[in-house]
Amino acid sequence: MANRYIFLFSRLLIGLLFVFSGITKLMEPVQEFALQVEQYQLLPQILIMPFAYALPWVELIFGGLLILGIWVKLDAGILGLTMTAFIIAISQAMIRGIGLTDCGCFGEVIEVGETPGQVLIRDIVLMLPIIYLFFSKTKFFSMDKYLLK
Asked: In Å, what is the CA distance from 141 to each residue of 4, 7, 14, 42, 145?
């Protein structure tokens, strides 16, 4: 019984976090987010703008689907890969000594003020409910119960 509520809480937590993150990035000019992406020195210059355009929509769409409980396993997989990319980006910046001014997690709308180490720990902790959702068999309070019959 507790698993059902853990499933629901995890869905709502991760879904709302990604929806909020996507919305905050969409509220600012894409060039602002592109500058935050560029500071990681990870993507080739030609990919920075397409990435800056696409990421907020990925966060918003898959976060929203997760909240609704539509294709939970797919959503958790996509958001898990996204979070893994964030973890890799932050880790490589720390290893290379790149001074990140802001993680870019919530665009310029909200500056969280975390150190890269704190962001890394937060993202690793947030992977736990994502992994749980990916492997969970529960469909409590989700549309998957009706869609995947």
From this structure: 8, 9, 15, 39, 8
What would the two tokens of residue 19 be?
Answer: 């929806």
Helix (H) or strand (E) holding 97: none
Q: What is the pLDDT of residues 108-124, one digit of tens each?
A: 667 667 788 999 999 99
The model's pTM is 0.91
CA angle 72, 76, 78 (to 5 degrees): 120
First to last CA, the chain: 21
Rounded Cα–Cα distance for residues 3 and 81 (Å): 24
In a domain, 3, yes or no: no
Reported as type and span, the H/E element at residue 105 is none
In a domain, 120, yes or no: yes
Looking at the structure of the chain, the number of domains it has is: 1
Strand ranges in the chain using DSSP code E only, listed in sequence order: none
CB atoms within 10 A of CB 92: 13
Q: Which domain holds residue 60?
A: 13-139
Residue 149 in tokens: 């019959």
In a domain, 5, yes or no: no
CA–CA dist 2, 93 (Å, integer): 39
Query: Is residue 1 one of the residues assigned to a domain?
Result: no
